[in-house]
Amino acid sequence: MVVRTVILSLLALLISDHLMAGASEYQLIQPTRNNSGAVLHSKTGRAHLETPGGSRKSLALRRDERLTTLAEVGSGWITAGIREKSSRRELVLMSISNSRVDRLDSPAGQSARYRLNPTLLGNDSRLEGLAWLEGPDIKSLSVRLAFFQESSWSNPVEVPRPTKGSQSGLSATLLADGSWLLVWAAFDGTDDDIFYSQVIGDLVTRARRVTANNRVPDVMPSILASDSGALLAWSQLEDGDYRIKISRFDGSAWSGARTHGPPGSLRAQLSLQDNQVSLVYREAWPRSWTVSELGLSGRAQRRANFAVASDDRPIIAQSSGGTVVLRWAGAQPSEAAWKSVP
Fold this sequence. Notes:
Elements: H1 2-15, E1 27-29, E2 33-34, E3 39-43, E4 46-51, E5 55-59, E6 65-73, E7 76-84, E8 89-96, E9 101-104, E10 114-122, E11 127-135, E12 142-149, E13 152-153, E14 157-158, E15 167-174, E16 180-187, E17 192-200, E18 203-204, E19 208-209, E20 218-226, E21 229-238, E22 241-249, E23 258-260, E24 265-273, E25 276-283, E26 288-294, E27 300-306, E28 315-320, E29 323-327, E30 334-337, E31 339-340
Parallel strand pairs: 2-24
Antiparallel strand pairs: 1-3, 3-4, 4-5, 6-7, 7-8, 8-9, 10-11, 11-12, 12-13, 12-14, 15-16, 16-17, 17-18, 17-19, 20-21, 21-22, 22-23, 24-25, 25-26, 26-27, 27-31, 28-29, 29-30
């Protein structure tokens, strides 16, 4: 019962950004692969895109809409989020360039009340597709995806559910070979495990486990493509506390999990900026945020800790020389010194 309670509380945390009631504060969002330095400032009913030099572009949102993700595509960006209507939640998408902002249609065929966790797939030139979670309620979500072809969406495809329980924490990336890699947590009646599926052309592979059926929760995955495959970070319950785990995908299999961070580490997020892979995560005791620079194997090379109690996820504002700067919405940036990891 304790494990189930922990799982439900983490599921609520995973979807809280998408259930928008009472979400009055701005959230800072960067693309996972961030070459432009753009930052999306988003809250319910309002958003603007900030680019280097302080330029701001306002995005016209309805009062029941909130943008939750941003991706670089070609010379602009695609952003996606949720519209909370009285009877259901729908996806919202926008295209942003230097000269204009356009609304995009979302994939047709919504068959259930909830659509959540939109995850954009794109390359250096264009939007490739979209993955999301869909279901009649937040405890019965499954993974869906659609391809973006010639300015329109294909019919949505449902990834066969590996377990009878709900899916959560969807993350996705576009690999160097052009295939997609989707990862998520799935509840099997006892605990959550991390599953993945690869999308190769029109083929969607069956969902397979990243983590063994270990009877402890594995939650909150974050995936990032690399030249040789991908890195995956998530949180696993270990001896009563969550620890960050990192595994590398080589195109066909996953490496053994590497433990990262102290007990009480969770909410891991991978990103690539200035050709450097970074991992930002929350530490529970004492309450703080940590950013690590990782090598291609997933091993930490150096690390910086920020004694900031805010639960809002920060973004990496700057990393140069011996220091790194994190930034929170509505607060002054904070600077910390890098420390080498033995």
